[in-house]
Structure formats: C-alpha cells, structure tokens
Amino acid sequence: MPFRPPTPLFAIGLLVGACTGSVSLPGDPQGECELAQVPSAPSIVTPAGGELKQPGELIRFEASPAAPLSAETREAEFELFLLAGDQPTTKIWTGSLQTSGATLAVNLDEGSFEAGFSTLDAWQSYAVRSRVREGGAACQFSEWSGYQDFRLDDGSEALFNEDEIRDLEITLSPESFSAISAEALPPGCVPYSRNYYPGSVTFDGVTYDNAGVRTKGGCGSSRDLSGKASFKINLSDFGDGSSCPVTRRARGLKHLTVNNQVQDGSATHERLAYQLYDLVGVPVPRRAPIRVFVNNLGNPGVGPELWGLYLNLESIDRRFLERRYEGTAAEGMLYEGTYFCDLTPENKPADENGPETCFSKKFDVDCSEPALGGDPFTYAPLISFIDQIAALPNGGFYPAITNFVDFDAYLSEWAAETIMNHWDGAIFDIRNNYRVYHDPAANKWVVIPTGMDQSWNEGQRPIDPWVPANIIARRCLEEKACEDAFAARLKEVLTIFENANFPARAEAIRTQIAAEVAADPRRESGDFSGRVDATINFISNRPAQINAWLAQHGY
Q1: Is the pTM of this model over 0.90?
Q2: 331-368 per-residue burial string, b: 16 or more CB within 10 A, e: under 16
C-alpha cells in the first residue's frame, strides 16, 4: 500500500475511561488479560508530518492513544524507518516505554539503533510509527499507527540567522576577474545569462577551490567588478573543466547568492519585505547580512579587500523547494519571469523546447534528470499553465483559478506587495523579479517573489492595489467574488503587518548594520540614517493609505 502520512495532530487530550472483564489471548504467558478489548492504533503527535528538524535538536516521539482503555500500566513501542520515495524502507531504531501517566513519549537517545546505524543523517527523510498496550504484559498490543514522516535538516538554518553577520571571501585569478567583469552588465533591461568562472571561495570556515563565480543583477542593480557587484556562486568543483562539476555543499547549500543592495540606501528593504512574506505564508528565500571580501590575484599585495555589506539570500534552487514541499511536490518545474513578463499567450515559448521568451527555465537536463513523478525539464508545464489561464471564460475565472493556482498565497503576495509598494515585482507595473513553480503533487502553481530592494519607497512609482498589471490579478478584479476575496485578504495582511511592529524591525536592522554601512568602501548611497527614517515613515503611514483604498472600493 502506498505510504500516506496521517494528518498531523498537534493537541490531542487523553480520554479517561476503562473497560472491565477479561479475555484470554493465544500464547499469553500469564493466561489472561484483565481488559476485554485490544486498544485501537494510536496516532503520532510528535514530530508533525513533514516537519524539518534541526541538527542538534532534541528528537522526541510522542503517540496519543485513540481511546485509552485503562488508567493502569500503559506501554508504547516506536519504530523508526528510513524513508525513500515516500515509502518506509529499513528499520533503523526502536524505542519503548512503560508509564502510568498520560504521556506516551520517548526521546531518540532513549532508544536503540539497529546494527549498522548510530545516528540520523542530515537531509534524510524518516518515518516513525507506534503501537500501544494497556493493562500489562498479559494484554495485547494495538495495531501499528500510520507512519509519520519528518526530515533532518542539513544545518543551513544557522547560515541565515539574521542576528549574525558572517564573512564571505572570493579569490579570483586575473583571467577569471576579467571574464566575470566583462559579462557583468546586461545589454539593457532584458533577460541575460552569464557564465561561471573558477575562483576560490571561503565561507563558514571552509575553502572551496575552483568554485564557480559570476555576477548577477538586472539593468538597475548590476555592476561590474570596478563597482559593488552582486555575486552568484556555485560551490561545486569547476576545476576539471567538466560541464557537470562535482557537487559540493556548505551545510547543504550548493549555491550562494549575495545581493549588493545598491538600489536601497537604507539597506533594510529586502530583509523587511521577506519578513512580511514569511508572516503571511508566501514562500520566499531565507536571508542574513554578510560581509564580502574579494581578492584579485592580478593585484599582488592587495587583498583580500572589503567590498562591503551585502545580503546573503537563499538561492531558489531544488534544495529551496525541498525545504518547503515534500517528496514529489518538490520535483516540479521552476521558471523565472523578468521585465514586463506576464502569464499571457504572447509570452509562451514556441514549444516545449523553447526558445525562452521573457521566461527562462531554472532546471535543465544537462546535469540531472527529472525525478519519477516530477515535471519534465521543458517549457511544457509553463505552456500548459498559460493556456489554462487563457481558457477561463469571462465570468468563470473565480473560483476556477483556485483549482490550479495556490490562490491563498497569490492573494497574500498581492496584498503584501501593495503594503510595501513593490512596483518591481510580479503583480504591478514591471512584472519582474519572480518565479513560478509547479507543484506536481497538488498540480498547482505558486508565485515566488524576489528582488525586494525597490520596496518601501513613498514616492517611487506609487501603485494602486486596484490597478494591477498581472493577468491573474486583473482577471480577479473583473469578478465581484474574487475582488471580495482579495479585499478580505488585504485586510488580514494589513492586520498582520500592523501587529508585527515593522518600525521596530527597521530600527533593529539600523542598529545592527550602522557600523558596517559606515565601513562599506563601495557603498553608492549616502545618508543611511535618513533613508532608514524615510522607510520607517513610509511604514508608519501605510496602514492609513491601505484603509483609504479599501473604503474607496466599499470595503
């Protein structure tokens, strides 16, 4: 039978009650059990289904009986299995306990590993099950519970601790330095690809020789290596010249993305924006401040040179998806949209093989193959998505759109972009800085926003939430029921925003990074403190502006 994790149970109380009488059980060494029936299979309470546990964290397993039969001796057994392809495979650990209390729980270190196993491995999925017995050893165990899955993280959470400023050092040969700089600036506001060139990268105390290094950024934020360039780094080994280098990871991270924040004089906008998205349930990258040093070996005796304060932003790659989705759900196709890129027929690739339009594929068959049950690494899923939107008739858009779009997340993003005046994102004006991801398990699409440096600005291209540019939002406002859903979500997100005290969050970032900003030799914007003040002023005034829009439209 295929593995189907049970629904997580977060708070289940034990029922008080007992059965009387006795029943003889075959093979019972003591002859009879005082209980007249066998207990029902329990449910796993802890860990929650799909939970991502951190290395070093206490691993605790807890079961809840369906209906306890006795207040006397209660026993529980737990078994832990490796999980592969949504199926439990090898049993690796067993734990048990006897208690007269209500809680049936055992810690990992209180059980025993099977031969050949001694610990849990990072980024491995596991499944736990339990059974219970009540009334003593003469009584019979219940059936086993369903399996509950969880995963042990790789430790990368620590790399995105926003309270800590880490260091990244990049060492480039003269040849790599020149080649990277020559490809740094795109030829206008158009999709643009760059090559990786080998360099030595030191991060989190480890040096990765022959890592791939390139710049990143569009027509507004890109800089060559004479200025404060942003970087994308692939930690894999590019030293042997292979087109598919051997994968290396820093606590699970294969890719590093460091943003220069040159379009945000306050150096707060990206962090604040991603924090709001986190609060309202929109999938976005993790992030943390970071110092970048660059050593150009073409300048003997100079370096490593401080290039300043950057933002370490989690790369949106397969590992990013695996953290947020389970199993096959993480094996979908991902596309990036840039510069006036909308989900409309004129932006469809000609066929599944391309060529790319304003959308580009983020996974390719060059170095990996699609997983069983996952999407093909082609444009076919995107073409189908655009066709589905176009096929919805006038008056029949909502709620039909919810059948193939994670519409709750979409409405949350629309509301959040409204609050932060993010005109450079997926919903408004430029329709830029976003990715669309297809979850093949649920067969639904989600929009993943990025590029938040142009947010939280009072007078910069002001947006109106009732005048979106994205086709999904425009179609939504054509139908009253969908407009009502957006207005309701805008109110909810505004309440979350107000309760989260974003002025205090901005002040905390200012305090943390003020010295780093002052020491930044490649910083382009002056008046750091004044820019933070302007951001806080915008945040403080925004609720009144949002409420005025809602009232104007009858909400």
Answers
A1: no
A2: bbbbbbbbbebbbeeebbbeeeeeeebbbbbbbeeeee
